[in-house]
Each structure stands twice: as structure tokens, then as C-alpha cells.
Design goal:
By secondary structure, the protein is an alpha/beta fold. The chain has helices spanning about 5-15, 65-70, 85-95, 105-115, 115-120, 130-135, 140-155, 175-185, 210-220; strands at about 20, 25-30, 75-80, 125, 155, 160-165, 185-190, 200-205, 225-235. Helix content is about 35%, strand content about 15%. The termini are far apart. Bound molecules: zinc ion (2 copies).
């Protein structure tokens, strides 16, 4: 399409099919996303936090105390926003309702939060665990996000290369140590040749204790991945 036609087409489409707030559904002008009332309820994270985990640090490039004490297995991690009752509501809406229209907006947020990781990545791999268990029956939201993010960035997505090989107990009530034990051997790489030597960005909905993401990262590294970074919609901040 000619470059000058595209903004015009977008304008006309906007008149015909106005965007709706992805949280409350009211009509919004301009770009798709959140309405003015919902926007302040989501606490977006800037990309200048701790390189290992993304939490805010006093000075760009500083590694936080938690990561210094126990360095994560992944190289870097980024999240689009803070996990809170409001953002949890947004994620659940994306997971459970028929919310395919949210995917382009969420992918844009992931792109912004993970720009530095994505610029160096060879492959996008979604975490297969709870994404699938909870809502594969409707459609695979993680795969949908991966495809949109792939479309925006040109980084290839492989939604089948990481597989859940063992059912694990629900994680919610477990401590971090128990969680690690629970998921340690739950994941396998189906085709090591597809990840060998690749710089991988692992996608998930929420970074909580990191047990699931640690298990997935280890599976990818064992299969020969050059390095693994983590990109999630939300992250839990301690003390909130
Ligand atoms: Zn709204
Ligand atoms: Zn950190």
C-alpha cells in the first residue's frame, strides 16, 4: 500500500469501526488502547530498570540487590506493567473472554517494554504452561501475542518448540522453593535444532517468583540456546 494512503485508510476505518478501551469497552478516539479513565490504573514500567529483572533501580544499568544475591538463569527480563488488581483484571480478560482485539495492543506494549531484547532476538517462544492449561479451548492467547509481536518486530515466533511434558500441581499456594521443585522437569524442547545457537525471548503473562520461567529457560539452554531473555505483560513487585 502507498505510504500516504495508509493514514487516510486508518482514519476512515476509525470512523467506521471506532476503537474500544481494552479494559472497559468504551469508545476511544485515536489509537487503540485504554480510555482516559482506565489508563492511570495500569502502572507501566520503563525499560531502564535492573538489567536482569527490570525492577526500578536508582541509576540506569545498576543490577538490583535481589539479582546480585541470586542471579537469574535468564540474561535479561522486561515487563510491560506492574501486576496489580487492575492489571490482573486486564490479563484475565485477555485470557478468558473472547478478546482477540486486545492482542495488538498488548503486543505493542510488549514491544515497547522489550525493545532492547527484541532488537537482538532470533526467536520468540511462549511459555506453554498455564496459557494452554487455562484457555487453549478457546484459542491460544500466548501464540496470538507471539504472532502479533513477530509481525511488529520481524522476529520469528515458534509456539510449539517448548512443550509441557508433565502435569504440575497448581503453583498459587506454593513457596518459591516448592515452586522450583514443582516445575523443574515440566518442560522439554521438542526440536533442539530449532533453538540451538538462537537468542531467545521467552514470553509469559506474569513474572511472579520466576519458577516457571527458570524451568523454561533451563530447558532452552540445555537444548543449546545461545541465551534466553524474558518478556512478560506484568511483573509482581515485592511489598505490593
Ligand atoms: Zn476504559
Ligand atoms: Zn534485578
Amino acid at each position: 500500500m502507498m505510504p500516504r494512503v495508509r493514514p487516510l485508510l486508518r482514519f476512515v476505518l476509525g470512523l467506521l469501526m471506532p476503537h474500544r478501551c481494552i479494559r472497559c469497552g468504551v469508545t476511544v478516539g485515536g489509537a487503540p488502547g485504554l480510555c482516559a479513565a482506565c489508563y492511570p490504573t495500569i502502572e507501566f514500567l520503563a525499560g531502564s530498570g535492573c538489567p536482569s529483572c527490570g525492577v526500578a533501580v536508582p541509576q540506569p544499568g545498576l543490577t538490583c540487590g535481589v539479582c546480585l544475591a541470586a542471579p537469574p538463569v535468564w540474561r535479561r527480563a522486561r515487563s510491560a506493567f506492574v501486576y496489580s488488581p487492575d492489571s490482573r483484571d486486564l490479563i484475565l480478560r485477555f485470557k478468558h473472554a473472547d478478546s482477540t482485539h486486545m492482542a495488538p495492543v498488548l503486543a505493542a506494549w510488549l514491544h515497547r517494554a522489550g525493545a532492547d531484547l527484541l532488537a537482538e532476538a532470533d526467536l520468540l517462544v511462549p511459555v506453554p504452561l498455564h496459557w494452554r492449561r487455562l484457555f487453549l479451548r478457546r484459542y491460544n492467547q500466548a501464540a496470538l501475542l507471539a504472532r502479533h509481536l513477530s509481525g511488529r518486530t520481524g522476529v520469528k515466533a515458534d509456539v510449539l518448540v517448548l512443550k509441557r511434558v508433565r502435569n504440575t500441581r497448581p503453583q498459587g499456594h506454593l513457596r518459591r522453593g516448592q515452586r522450583l521443585g514443582n516445575v523443574r522437569t515440566a518442560f522439554a524442547v521438542t526440536a533442539p535444532d530449532r533453538v540451538a545457537g538462537k537468542r531467545i525471548v521467552l514470553l509469559d503473562d506474569v513474572l511472579t517468583t520466576g519458577a516457571t520461567l527458570t524451568a523454561c529457560t533451563n530447558a532452552l539452554l540445555r537444548a543449546g540456546a545461545a541465551d534466553v531473555s524474558v518478556l512478560t505483560l506484568a511483573r509482581v513487585l515485592k511489598g505490593r
